[in-house]
Amino acid sequence: MMSNRPVRLWRRDSEFGRRDKDTLAVEPWTFEQIRRVTLSRRLNRGELEFRGRICIDSRQVMEGDLFIAIRGRKHDSHRFIRQVVAGGAAGLLVDRPLDPDATRLVTRSSVTLLHTDDTIGAMNRLAAAFRRDIRAKVIAVGGSNGKTTTKQIIHTLLARRFAGIASPKSHNNNIGLPLAILSVPSRCEYVVLEVGTSAPGEIAALGHVAMPDMAVITGIGLEHVEFLGGLPEIAREEAALARFIRPGGILILTNLFPELLAALRLLRTPRLTVGPAGTGADLEATSIIENMDGCRFVINGRISCHLPLLGRHNVFNALLAIAVARRMGLREEEIVAGLLAVKPSPMRLEIQQVRRHFVLNDAYNANPAGMCAALETFAGIYPPAVVGRSIRRVAILGDMLELGGQSDFLHRQVGRQVAAHRIDFFIAIGPFMKCAADEAAAAGVPVHHFPDTPTAAERIAPLLLPCDAILLKASRGMRLESILDALRGGEESSRPAGALVGAQEPHEPLGMERIV
Question: Which residues lie below 8 Å from residue 257, measured CB to CB, with a gap of 6+?
Fold first, then answer.
């Protein structure tokens, strides 16, 4: 995995010289070459030498770095120019004028100053230029659900034979994806990227940078409806990734989504499909058995596999990864052994024990399809016949965000699912989840509603009994993992540190380093 530290940029393509794959002694790009690629203007011609590192975190700047100033909704790296110059940066790429003091400091320090209309766009142009000469196979994973899990399974399988990397956490936007590409080592044989969207056109923009050799689309569901629209619009957005597959590449997808297949009907790129038995997919999963140890299944009636992840839907994520592995030449025994090494990602159907509570922590994110899948999995591993009277099944669910005008209707559907799975106690958090609470209560489910997560974290403990089995799920913006902190009495939860840094919001403490 790549670390959250600066990237090292080397001259790679024919214009800037090509490095030998067996040596690391290469010359970095010059500021003039970076200026041309990023379509920027030089405002100050400095004398300091660029040593090949690109950094977007002012606290990690080292001598000879190029610092790219990123502006987000909450943070603006332009405010840290003085610290960057003091840290020894050789160059700055900015997209707004510096204040007079910072300008004088840059001039006195002989730092090269480049100006562009948009530093994030410039960084994407830089990554696109770098991508053109990457020797590694680029595998891009898109879809409404399961991208991170599928990416991790692919990485786990391919790592058994090849040297490669996967983009960290959910770095799947116009900051995380270009940084991942700029972090590809010279000896890398594959890189697995995650491609996300929350608005029309974002997939196409990222696909233009990634230019994958293999594109994987996990499926579609109602996500970011407020911005993307309904299923046909979401399908067209996700399908856009396939337009950027390089010649000789392949599209790998689940065949369960008619809207997605319709959006891809004119595409001539070779494809490989996965799905359940009887669907005509190239890879079919049969005899699926789910328990606390994960899922067992059979591929095409002959290859028995064990996936140590909860959730039947993860079987199809695994099939997508298996299709990639087969395309890369892995043998059956390598694939079967590789699946056994897969580990759950934090806060994605992660089983935890918090004091005396058994927790199924799926709080990383949520949309309607993911919420229903989590309830199904929770009910499957804690069926009423097993838990009896000694254990209550408690669903703690928070709002699903960005569903627009369909929000009330979709949350009511969740309430009906809570009742259908015979949940013993439903704790609803947030104004939208109140609709689910009303629906479940009407069906006879005991319900308690909190207006927001901080209130719930403060008051939830007395509502729970020892040995309760708890499902925790909500959209990322609800920060539902803080419920675990409260149940632990203030101890830190097991969430990955900085899970959102660079994934959804440009943020000051972000950067990567190419490990070479």
Answer: 219, 220, 235
